[in-house]
Amino acid sequence: MCLARDNVKGRTVGLVCTACGCQFIRRYTGELVLARLRRSPILPDNERQLTKLAEEVVLLLELGFQGYMNQEIA
After folding, report:
1. DSSP string for residues in the chain
2. In terms of CB atoms within 10 Å, which end of the chain has fewer, N or C?
3. What is the pLDDT of residues 11-58, one digit of tens each?
């Protein structure tokens, strides 16, 4: 196990298993809890993926190369 983070205020320690890569949370009391997996809310096989048109992507790239910030482009 290797230490990933120490949350003193929450009294927990994040650990990562060096053998399998699983993440765990250990409370200062000694209780070991399996960390929740973070998953994307959009499934990979979802047909309704939001994509930009090719022309819009080219325009956004050009604006970025010209030095405009993301907030200005938006």
Report:
1. -EEEEEETTTTEEEEE-TTT--EEEEETTS-EEEPPPP--SS-TT-TT-----HHHHHHHHHHHHTT--HHHH-
2. C
3. 888 888 777 777 788 888 888 876 666 666 666 676 666 677 888 888
